[in-house]
Amino acid sequence: MSKPLLQVRNLTTRFGDGLGAITAVNNISFNVDVGETLAIVGESGSGKSVTALSIMQLLPDPPGRIMAGEIVFDGTDLAKLKEEEMRTIRGNQISMIFQEPMTSLNPSLTIGLQIAEPINLHKKLPWQKAYDKAEELLNRVRMPDARSRLSAHPYQFSGGMRQRIMIAMALACQPRLIIADEPTTALDVTVQAQVLELLKELTRETGTALILITHDLGVVARYADRVCVMYGGKIIETASALDLYARPMHPYTRGLMASIPRLDEPAGRRLVPIKGQPPNLSQLPVGCSFNPRCSEVVDRCRHDTPELMKFDDKHLHACWVAPHV
Amino acid sequence: MPDITETSLIILPASIKRPNAVSEFFVRLFREKPLGAAGAVICLLFLFAGIFADVLAPYGYNQIMPINRMKPPSWQFWFGTDNLGRDIFSRVVYGARLSVIIGLSAASLATAISIVLGIISGYLGGRFDMLVQRFVDAWMSFPELVVLIVIVAVIGPGMFPVIIILGGFLGIGGSRIIRSAVLSVREQSYIHAAQSIGAGINRILWRHVLPNVLPPVIVLFTTRVGAVILAEASLSFLGLGVPPPAPSWGGMLTGSSRNYMYLAPWMALAPGICLTLVVFSINMFGDAMRDLLDPRMRGHR
User: Fold this and answer.
1) B292 domain-assigned
2) Which of A9-13, A292-296, B77-81 has the lowest mean pLDDT?
3) Residues B120-132: what's their mean pLDDT?
4) How many CA atoms lie within 13 A of A146 on its CB side?
5) Nearest-CA residue of chain B relative to A88?
């Protein structure tokens, strides 16, 4: 096996300090291989987006800070880079797609400028050439009539089209890794599928690795190679996408699966919700943070915090009850 | 390194630029904002009068004709003559030149100071913002006119000091307005997106933040033009503006025109009406321009 493109080791990110401090990401580790699609799944407040911002070194500081851990990208630890050095990586080697296509494009600038900008910035191409590249990119994200669209403003596009523009921007410098933070949450279902299909196809073509952050397990099943499930700032289960669907181990993962409607089940089956609320990150329960909501809780869960344990080489989970070696 | 000069590169290559953005703007100005269009026309008339004062004015601004003292408006002297026998129309036309020069340059200076101070202070936030804003607070707590009078009294009257003082004074106060606009812009996700492509602070400030605070900048500039012309008039009224015999509108309102208020009201009427008209029409034009130039407003008309 070749070396992974991105290795996150024992990353801990905290907001604020003192009594009100919140540990949004708590000692997580994962790898992303070259060309791989890794999905990070979890409910709101589970630490998915903070993980993404930590990798990009874009945490609002203060109050957010990386307290411990390494983020090794292609041999360099991003957490130790100076801001200027990090700027040569952002948008060039790692780029990001945001959740809200309606607000993540600058309303006052033409989309041509916005797509050409990273090319001009990192590849030092003159604007005229960068615009030619931008047109090419718009063609690749199947924007009809790309040339004349370069001079259009974001308000002239629908949500799905804007997210295509965001994808074009993310691909502009041929990055090695794209982080997509809930790229389709704001879009309607048919457009979601088109956008994800396009993203998947383009990353496969170019061999770009993708971190897909989502709360939608349906998206994960179709587009991810591997999955990390996050809960309360920790990774509680990780496996290949196929394996996770076949054998969800952690009660939380199984709860998520049970709460999705499925077409291949008899009509009239009731969905099983996970009871309770997501945990308050400033007052996580002692032991396993899922224990107050867990239907299989045993005594040990209430005082012993489980770390990731192996079920087999590729499938890890953090649960005392589920089978492990 | 990206720097401020790069903002000039925002223009699109000629091949994909919309062919007639400027003419389109004026068509829409006349069609959608008749009041703004009227303002623009009046402003242009005064600008024209200021530039071609030498051709337009039938007499010199200081050409004294003792036999024609305090003549009421007539075909020979359109706006009448003053107590020294100078043609008021000619003086108003030359005064337009002075007002235009002072108004535009002091308002430009003020707006530039407001933009730089407001954008940097608003975007950086934190301790720097605190310091700058307390300085602005202190500055704005001085009574404007009194400070102006003191400064002019120290360095002496004249056009250049008036421009610098008015520009600096209004600029520092106006930075508040820009800053508050920046505060909301900097939390938008397109600014995070700009950070995520690796843009440096200069690029973010001048390319990504500035265009989004342009609407208040335009309003600020146009109201400043009006304010500067008025402030210059106040200074001249107090005898501290551009020294006579230069034909400042403010200066023409005061002095002898006050003494002959009942005998020759036209001496004060003409410059007063011009002053009001210019300030009013600039504000109308500014409002219309803000509405038309904002791409975000175009979507939902």
Assistant:
1) yes
2) B77-81
3) 91
4) 17
5) B198
> Is A121 at the interface with chain B, CB within 8 A?
yes
* 0.90 surpassed by complex ipTM: no
Q: What is the structure's pLDDT at B6?
A: 41
How many beta-carbon pairs below 8 A join chains A and B? 99
Q: In the structure encoding, which two tokens stand for residue A32, read together?
A: 């992303």
Integer Cα distance of A238 and A236 in angstroms: 7
Asked if residue B11 is part of any domain, the answer here is no
pLDDT at B267 over 70: yes
Query: Residue B69: inside a domain, yes or no?
Result: no
Among A108, A121, A157, A163, the residue to mutate for chain B (most B Cβ within 10 A): A108
Q: Domain A6-93+179-188+207-317, what fold?
A: Rossmann fold (3.40.50)
Reduced to 3 states (helix: H, G, I; strand: E, B; else coil), residue B266 is helix
The structural domains of chain A, with segments of one domain joined by +, span 6-93+179-188+207-317
Q: Which chain A residues are closer than 8 Å to B295 by Cβ?
A: 107-108, 153, 155
Q: Which amino acid is at A309?
A: M
CB contact under 8 Å between A104 and B198, yes or no, is no
Spell out which residues of chain B touch residue A96, defining contact as CB-CB under 8 Å.
Answer: 193, 196
Q: What is the DSSP string of B19-56?
A: TTHHHHHHHHHHHH-HHHHHHHHHHHHHHHHHHTHHHH
> Any CB–CB contact under 8 A between A87 and chain B?
yes
Instruction: Measure in Å the smallest separation between the Cα of A168 and chain B Cα atoms.
Output: 12
3-class SS of residue A54: helix
As for how many domains chain B has, the answer is 1
Is B215 in CB contact (< 8 Å) with chain A?
no
C-alpha distance from residue A105 to each of A108, A194, A233, B300 (Å): 9, 20, 29, 18
Residue owning tokens 């500081």: A61
Q: Report residue B233 as tokens.
A: 């008039």
SS (H, E, C) A173-198: CCCCEEEEECCCCCCCHHHHHHHHHH
Q: Residue B198 and residue A107: Cβ atoms within 8 Å?
A: no
Q: How far is A113 from chain B (nearest CA, A)?
A: 7
Position B100 in a domain: yes
Give dist(CA B201, CA B191) in Å, integer.
Answer: 11
**Which residues numbered 173-192 in B keep a CB inside 8 Å of some CB on A?**
188-190, 192
Q: Tell me, what CATH number does B160's domain have?
A: 1.10.3720.10
**CA atoms of B166 and B235, how far apart (whole Å):** 11
The DSSP-derived string for A261-273 is --TTS-TTPPP-P
The pLDDT confidence band at residue B298, using thresholds 50, 70 and 90, is low
Range of the domain at B267: 29-60+77-297
Q: Cβ contact (<8 Å) for B9 and A127?
A: yes
Q: Which parts of B125-200 fold into alpha helices (H)?
A: 126-140, 144-155, 159-185, 189-196
Structure tokens at A255: 């709860």
